[in-house]
């Protein structure tokens, strides 16, 4: 009996984030999208399942409204024919979607998670994956976030936020890995 391959979950790699950067928001992990492209290639080569998650904004000024250019997926992460695309309207890819049902129907126990942003949709999806009993692997160099101002006016760098999110998830909700480790695990099988 063969062990099912892990599934790659690619979260919100959409052009709205390019708009944020153009507007002056500072991010970390400038090579994250290249690492996502590497993961996509590895999963495609191996014939492993891929789930593309898109965020659809619901507020009138959202960069993620389907009628706006920011809704479009970045070219490097565009799905290929036959790959699943799931649209969500909240932070978690499991809420209001059939992602869990699709994973269970495919007998998939391990999910590899990447995308944007580390402390929002990636974190929420990763927490839920762990809580639902999936073996979640969060790819640290294939996700990114932006700097933020805290409730007391403190400025938090994107690097600090990214590191804290990884620390919060590590061990309890997910195993933190690199794209290279995930790709090497395919080569070892």
UniProtKB/TrEMBL annotation:
<keyword id="KW-0378">Hydrolase</keyword>
<feature type="domain" description="Isochorismatase-like">
    <location>
        <begin position="7"/>
        <end position="179"/>
    </location>
</feature>
<protein>
    <submittedName>
        <fullName>Isochorismatase</fullName>
    </submittedName>
</protein>
<dbReference type="Pfam" id="PF00857">
    <property type="entry name" value="Isochorismatase"/>
</dbReference>
<dbReference type="GO" id="GO:0016787">
    <property type="term" value="F:hydrolase activity"/>
</dbReference>
<dbReference type="InterPro" id="IPR000868">
    <property type="entry name" value="Isochorismatase-like_dom"/>
</dbReference>
<dbReference type="InterPro" id="IPR050272">
    <property type="entry name" value="Isochorismatase-like_hydrls"/>
</dbReference>
<dbReference type="InterPro" id="IPR036380">
    <property type="entry name" value="Isochorismatase-like_sf"/>
</dbReference>
